[in-house]
Amino acid sequence: MNNTTNSALNSFRQVFDYPLFRLGEGTVTLSLILKLLLLFACVLLAEQVLRRYFAIRLLKRTRLDAPLQYGIARIGGYMFILLGLYVALTAVGINLSSLAVVAGAIGIGIGFGLQNILHNFVSGLIILAERPIALGDRIEVGGVAGNVTRIRLRSTEIVTNDNISIIVPNSDFIMHPVTNWSHGDPRVQIRLPVGVAYGTDVEKLRTVLLEVAAGHAKVLKTPAPTVFFEGFGDSALLFELGVWTAEMAHSPRRFRSELNFAIERKLRENHIQIPFPQRDLHLRSGNIVLQQNSGAPGSGSGGT
To answer: Is residue 196 pLDDT above 90, yes or no?
Structure first.
């Protein structure tokens, strides 16, 4: 029984120690690969534990903003992973100097084949370092608007008002203009266009629009709402109601809708007309010649 067991162990040992290929001056075996994978797994697990402890226990005791705490924790975690991989390779006996040629070849391949991934990776580092956007911000980029819920090195997750998660590559935040409604001061001014019929008492209209603004709970008192007279349109006098609010970072569409409902109701109550497009048609005097098609059904040969 012992001989059989020893024979099986020797067979397993030969399989695990069988040289697969040479790497520099060393030989790569199956046992070395398994050890390396185990060390990599330990590094990743240790990074998660340390990052959570570091972010929750230490950074929260500081006066740093929550987005900055998140960025520091993420960057520190990535640095820990790189250091752990270096230690793991050294621990299994792989001479890193012998990987210089292989690393150069891999770098060239990455430069051509994984250019977009590297671009997004570097963009993610820039976002975490400069913090143009942060967790919880209300942003708009490339026609996508929503709240930032997660920032990774390759992509950022945005959740829209319809609870739809959209994954945006980080390079879009570097290459395209980004509207951040939450950056710095969340107060913004929005302007609602209003067109009324010619002949309307414009002072009465101004009073009505200001009453609408004053009656909405989410409109800020300071700065005060303003009514702008934009000009004379083809069919209407053009005005804009300018109000300040902090709702653009939370529910901008609902805020606009509520104000539009209130404006329409107030205009109707005060008998202020919202005109339809109008066109004046001028006919010049002259003779209109009517020709009858001889091939039309029911046409006679002699005519009338």
So the answer is: yes
Using CA atoms, how far apart are residues 166 and 180, in angstroms rounded to an integer? 16
Above pLDDT 90, what percent of the chain?
A: 23
Residue type, 86: Y
Bond from prior residue into 67 cis (ω within 30 degrees of 0): no
DSSP state of 31: H
3-state secondary structure of 164: coil
Instruction: Label residue 55 left, alpha or beta by phi (over 0 means left) and psi (-120 to 50 means alpha).
Output: alpha
Per-residue pLDDT of 237-262, as tens digits, reads 999 999 998 876 677 788 899 999 99
Q: Tell me phi and psi for residue 80, to 5 degrees.
A: -65, -40
- Domains defined along the chain, listed by start: 12-113 (1.10.287), 129-180 (2.30.30.60), 188-269 (3.30.70.100)
Residue 136 half-sphere exposure, CB side, CA atoms within 13 Å?
8
Q: Two tokens at 205?
A: 């209209």
Residue 187 in 3-state DSSP? coil
Please check whether residue 193 is in contact with residue 238, taking contact to mean a CB–CB distance below 8 angstroms.
yes
Bridge partners (DSSP) of residue 22 are 27
- Alpha-helical regions (H) of the chain: 2-16, 30-53, 66-91, 100-113, 115-130, 171-175, 202-214, 252-269
Nearest to 82 by CA among 48, 40, 49, 115: 40
19: which residues sit within 8 A by CB, 6+ positions away? Answer: 27, 28, 29
Q: Return d(Cα 165, Cα 181) in angstroms, integer.
A: 19
